[in-house]
Fold this protein.
Amino acid sequence: MRELWFVYILRCADGTYYTGIAKNVDARVAKHNSGRGAAYTRARRPVEVVYRERKFSRVTALLREIAIKRLTRDRKTRLIRRGRPCPPGPKRRVPPKDPWDIIFKRKRHGGMNDHDN
C-alpha cells in the first residue's frame, strides 16, 4: 500500500505563508519549529499549520505544492479559509514553467543549441 503525502501551508510568526509537502505533517512542523526545517521558516518561528491537503503520491503532492506557491497571497488566504482545494486563479500573462522542470530542476533551452552552430 502506498503512503499518503500531504501538501501543507504554515503561517509563520511574521504572518507570511510557507507551503511544503510531507508524509507526516505534524512531525515536519515540529522540525520547522525546532529550527531544523526549511531555511525560510527558521527566522520566522513559531509556525502553525493552517491548511493541509491529502495526496496519493509524492508527485501529485509536488505538483499541488507548485500550484499553491503560484497563488497570490489573497488566493492562499481564501484557500485556507475555505479549508478545501480551490480552482486555479486567472491565467497569468507570462506562461508558467513546466512543473516537471521545477521538480527535476531542469533548465529550459531556447534558441539554438551549441551543436547547431
